[in-house]
Amino acid sequence: MFFFTIRRLLASVLVLLVSSFLVFALCAASFDPLERYYTQNPRPPESFFNNLRETLGLNDNFFVRYWRWLSGAVTGDFGETINGTPVVDQLWPRLLVTGRMIIGAIVIAILLAIIVGVIGAVRQYKASDYTFTFIAYILIALPTFWFAALLKEYVAGGVNDLFGQQLLYTIGEETPGLSLYASGWELWSDRLGHLVLPTVSLAALSFAAWSRFQRAAMLDVLGSDYIRLARAKGLTYRRTVVKHGLRNALIPLTTVVALGIGTLFGGAVITETVFVWHGMGEYLISNGIRQEDINVVLGWLLVSAVFIVVFNLVADLLYAVLDPRIRLS
């Protein structure tokens, strides 16, 4: 297991290096830091552009620029925005905001996918299986922004506590100004109320697809020879399914979840826009793409790549836990 982990770690580092190179190449080809000055009236003199190119290091060749950016990124320095503010100072707080939504969505989606997938496989072609299948296909077909808008319109206003106060909120990650005077449970309950709908919106669409994979994997396992052998030895059906069937059926789901992390980051951008969250999605759209700030876009893409690589590394290690034979491959 130790050598298996080391091999996967080295492979992950290599993948991350290749990803950083591709990210930098795409951004360098798509963004021009001087473009916003071209449309100014009056246009700055050519000497201004020459000095700015020298200051930003644009006169250096591509590989020198990439190495300079990578050296800083490894130490946590993603450069500065066009306004002179360090990117990491703005990116880290927004990552914490988006992170709690994505982590919550992953946990909810995985739990629901396992439960619904197993029920659908065990009760194949029963009423519950048809019901879950219908719901899953509906959720898969719904656009992310539209489903989020439906939750805002028809769910938020209908959930109140015993005193008639609203429990679910539709704008922001917390009530503006609350953190200035509130603390403890009052602050966290408010954040939880703001977190529910965006998390459900992000989790529901992922759960729908993942549950179909879990159902298919579970059906394949239930029809295998070792399951029939376990039943022939006298094990109960429930113990056979839970102890012998579910463990092997989780391997395909692990792959799908690891590959779906990138989709969740993309969905988070849309979800944050709908619910007006000040997270990484808003940072990418407002501060990066709209202002054509290459360092902001580079920082966002690299952080996303790190998360995707880390989750795939975790998935590789989970393979070895779920099926020890994989360690020998």
Automatic annotation (TrEMBL):
Q: Name one GO biological process term.
A: transmembrane transport
Q: Name one Pfam family in it.
A: BPD_transp_1_N
Output a single Gene Ontology CC term carried by this record: plasma membrane
**Location of the protein in the cell:** Cell membrane
Q: How does it sit in the membrane?
A: Multi-pass membrane protein
Domain spans labelled ABC transmembrane type-1 = 95-319
Membrane spanning stretches? 101-122, 134-151, 192-210, 249-277, 297-322
Arranged from A to Z, the UniProt key words for this protein are: Cell membrane, Membrane, Transmembrane, Transmembrane helix, Transport
Say which family it is in.
Belongs to the binding-protein-dependent transport system permease family.
List the protein's name.
ABC transporter permease
